[in-house]
TrEMBL record:
Organism expressing this protein natively: Arthrobacter russicus
Name recorded for this polypeptide: Metabolite-proton symporter
Residues in Major facilitator superfamily (MFS) profile domain copies: 1-440
Membrane topology: Multi-pass membrane protein
Keyword Cell membrane: yes
Highest taxon of source: Bacteria
Keyword vocabulary terms for this entry: Cell membrane, Membrane, Transmembrane, Transmembrane helix, Transport
UniProt key word Cell membrane: yes
Coiled coil: none
Amino acid sequence: MIVASLIGTSIEFYDFYVYATAAVLVFPKLFFPNADDVTQLLSSFAVFGVAFVARPLGSILFGHFGDRFGRKGTLVASLLTMGVATFLIGCLPTAQVPGWEFWAPALLVVFRFAQGLALGGEWSGAALLATENAPRNKRAIYGTFPQLGAPIGFILANLLFLVLNVTLPADAFAAWGWRIPFLASAVMVVIGLYVRLKLVETPAFQKVVDQGEVSKLPIGRVFRTSWWQVILGTFIMLATYVLFYLMTTFTLTFGTTAASLDAAKAAAEKAGKPMSQTAIEAFVPGLGYSRNDFLLMLIIGVVFFGIFTLVAGPMAEKYGRRKSLLVVTGLIFLFGLCFVPLVAGGFVGAMAWLIIGFTLMGLTFGPMGAFLPELFPTNVRYTGSAVSYNLASILGAAVAPFIAVALWQAAQGSTWLVGVYLSSMAVLTLIALYLSKETKDADLVAQSS
């Protein structure tokens, strides 16, 4: 069960992050070629955010089937949806192709929506697969394994992009190399399907079936009987989402933007594409690292994400989910206030920024695999935890890169406003955690609404 939940989430997060990386590296110019540099980037991020709008819909759709018909079949369907959408993105003509100026970005939006729909149903099912099969005193530990799929998927996606960047000329990468990570998803999905088709239902859901307590309309029941838990779960996840998408999508933009206007002009002239007057006027300085160097820095940071995701499980089991997350979220608040001195510290400061951020990400993300499902009764657990998780994605992840870029520009290259944004979201999560109850000793099999 643990292996099945880990493999599935790794594949789905790989697919999701392949798009996130491409949204920064190549999609702005390939799908929005007629806009200026800033508009290209913001347009790409807007499409990136479409998936997060789709995720709550996916949580309702897949949550309905997961609570009515079981975890196994629903997880297979979510994996297939993600795999097909990702593969089709890899086959999509770009807006640079005559006749595709409208259809290329339009279909990109459709496929990105399908990715979000799939991930909206994936996470909760994988978390339930692990936690509903776990001994009561090891649920937080078992629940970290589907969470581990996020750093594994991110590392696989970005390593592949890094290898392609190193081995292919820039024009070849832009022409066809970027498609390889998307097309490679098909192989991974076949492996994931093979594992998931061998699953059996969890004891908690089977008991609901045996007792005739299956909910006919889970979304209606969850909002009727567990609306407060939905609100708490949404805001408990908020700081986690904002932190992660600041540390990945935004930092990749900020880290690879030239550190000065002169450097930007020189790089553009070297590429044979001098900056337009509009681009010059809109230029905002970043850290100035090359694409390959910063991808490697990100991958190193995400290794800490994976390590501390696993560390977080035993901590949440020993001290409780709520107490552990209160401490970690407090540290996230302080981390947001340290953005400026860290990024101003050269390579050492930038690397420390990434390592600290991803360490905190692991510590806050790890317990969520147990904490959010434990908030809800068995017969609406799939729907309730999925809706909370994915509503938080709209409030946090969907808008985080867009807001961060706007704040970075407003501060004329400084990250202090971006840090304040993160700290503000941490305050909201601290309030939700304060209002919540400890779920460590909840009986997942006995609960029903």
